[in-house]
Amino acid sequence: MSLAPMTVAIEPAAAEQKPRTGGLTRWGGPALGLLLPLTLAVGWELAVRAGWSDGRLVPPPSVIYATFAELAEAGELQRHALATLARVLAGFGIGVVAGTVFGAITGYSAMVRRLLDPSLQALRAIPSIAWVPLFILWLGIFEASKVTLIAVGVFFPVYLGVMGAVMSVDRKIVEVGRVFRLSGAQMVRRILLPAVLPSYVIALRSGLGLGWMFVVAAEFMGASEGLGFLLVDGQQLGKPAQIVAAIVAFAVIGKTTDWIVVGLTAPLLRWEDRARIGGA
Amino acid sequence: MLSLDHVGKTYPNGVRALEGVTLSVGPGEILAIVGGSGCGKSTLLRAVSGLDTPSQGRIMLDGQKVEQPHEKIGIIFQEPRLLPWLTVADNVGFGLEGRPKDERKARVADALARVGLSEKANVWPRELSGGQAQRVAIARALVPRPEVLLLDEPFSALDAFTRTDLQDHLLDLWADLKPTLILVTHDVDEAIVLADRIMVMQPMPGRLFEEIADDLPRPRDRQSAAFDFVKRRVLAALDRSLAQGRPEGRDPAASNADTGAAMWW
Fold first, then answer.
1. Is this prediction's pTM over 0.90?
2. Residues B192 and B3 sit within 8 Å (Cβ to Cβ)
3. Which of A216, A86, A240 is nearest to A153 (CA)?
4. Interface test with A, best of B53, B66, B83 (most A CBs within 10 A)
């Protein structure tokens, strides 16, 4: 029943804890995420070295790294990565522009929405890979059909995101714009655009993610260069290390482009009142 | 001079929210509109603001018909409605775009000083308390120097202390610029503290019921007997306005008006 000693016991502990959690969120947080993959990688490496597995179908990290270095040295890795990146960027650009324009118009006008949205939703329901034969017939087997497929993949999440965001702009905020007698263009610039920006960034990121998905499909349908080509090539020539190296390259470049989108838009979104769940 | 001439509003679904409202408000006058829910008081205010157009009658400001938001008419809503992506200063200066930068800066700084939030100029709206945010909204509405300022239950979402504080504050601001104020509220005390004239409205369809002059000397003492007297009159009028809206011969308790105890809201 003595409260005083209890408080005394708690306080130093609490004081001690504070800097520790600060250190954890800054360094420990990211490190924590690396723990699992590093353990698995090191474990597998040791298992192969110890001779428990020959590591032929699942190459150990050292072999993957060697393949990576070999490809990079020959300039192959850069050539393939650049080809893929160029396709993604071209498709992403086209998909984003089209998705933004259509999404904004359908979100803004109920009339246009009734006219266009059902057809677009029907098109969205088609598995995009199903377009491949048609695109090849129409656009040939070279870049045009690949970029188009990626653009289709990027279009839908951006379209949906923008339409939803424009439709859900708060009437109360729009009324503030009306009270200050903004013209249509001013309303778009000063109210609607900033209001949809947070959802737009999310739409861009999911569009970009799908772009990276679709570039693989596009390169599977016949390419002489690109990371997708490295995958197919690795399969046909039985080089699993090359496949994993290409996958790692996908992960690194895909994540980097996502970071770039987040990084470029972050200064525009500092005003957001986010919960920041989990402390980071 | 703001005048309303037989203003009515029928919504597309057939609800008659407002009918035959005729009144005029002089320059610098403070008019409070009170009434039970659904009496059309917010509809009336939105019509005057130009956000909604009345289906009958017309609203004139200085001989000009008001059909859409007007530069001389400002409005403060129940919620602050600050733009979250603009800093406090940019929110206050929202209506000044197109003016020279120096003038804008000076007027924003002046308005923020008036509402006592100069040190918050560069913070985001999310960092403000409810009362501070509403003060920013007041500053934003006052910066373009409106002739008429409409207030739609502006303090109803705030706690009692903040509310009284802001009521006094609003009177100080009014004394500087002397705009016409039209205040919609369901807080009878608030109406009496602020207004020169109190208009009681009656629901279904919304219309004016009774006008009560409020000529208590300012500053007004919320505890005085005279204040209480006006309050009883307003409450009694509110009770009667609701009693008449009901089918006849029902609810005799509501006609027992002098207690002011009926649940008029």
1. no
2. no
3. A216
4. B83
Contacts of A195 in chain B (CB under 8 A): 85
| Nearest CB neighbour to B49, from listed A179, A191, A194 | A179
Would you say residue A248 has pLDDT above 70? yes
Other residues' Cβ atoms within 10 Å of the Cβ of residue A107 = 24
Q: Do A272 and B97 touch (CB under 8 A)?
A: no
Q: Is residue B251 part of a domain?
A: no
Cβ–Cβ under 8 Å, residues A132 and A221: yes
What is the arithmetic mean of pLDDT over A74-91? 92
Confidence band, pLDDT 50/70/90 cuts, at residue A9: very low
Q: Which of A182, A70, A125, A216 is nearest to B96 (CA)?
A: A182
Confidence of residue A15 (pLDDT cuts 50, 70, 90): very low
Helix (H) or strand (E) holding B61, with range, is: strand B56-61
Does the pLDDT at position B31 exceed 90? yes
* Residue labelled with tokens 């009170």: B34
Cβ–Cβ below 8 Å for B51 and A175: yes
> Among B171, B189, B264, B179, which residue's Cα sits nearest to residue B231?
B189
What lies within 8 Å, CB to CB, of B229 at 6+ separation is none
B122 occurs within a structural domain = no
Contacts of B85 in chain A (CB under 8 A): 194-195, 197, 271
CATH 1.10.1760.20 fits A61-270, yes or no: no
- Higher-confidence residue: A20 or A121? A121
List the structure tokens of A84.
Answer: 């893929």
Which chain B residue's Cα is nearest to A192?
B83
Rg over alpha carbons for chain B, rounded to the nearest Å, is 19
pLDDT at B254: 44
Task: Report phi then psi at A80, rounded to 5.
Answer: -70, -40
**Which CATH number belongs to the domain containing residue B207 in this structure?**
3.40.50.300
* Integer Cα distance of B150 and B141 in angstroms: 9
Q: Does the residue B109 lie in any domain?
A: no
pLDDT > 70: percent of chain A: 88
More confident residue, A161 or B39: A161
State the average pLDDT for chain A.
85
Average pLDDT over residues A39-54: 88
Report d(CA A95, CA A208) in Å as an integer. Answer: 9
- Which chain A residue lies closest to B94 (C-alpha atoms)? A180
ipTM of predicted assembly, 2 dp = 0.85
In a domain, B252, yes or no: no
Distance from CA of A278 to the nearest CA of B (A): 20
Distance of residue B198 Cα from the nearest chain A Cα, in angstroms: 25
The reported pLDDT for the residue numbered A12 is 42
Task: Please give the tally of structural domains in chain B.
Answer: 1
Instruction: Give me the residue from B75, B83, B86 closest to A179, CB to CB.
Output: B75
Write out the residue range of the structural domain in which residue B60 sits.
2-83+146-225+232-246
Q: Which residue has the tokens 């009918």?
A: B19
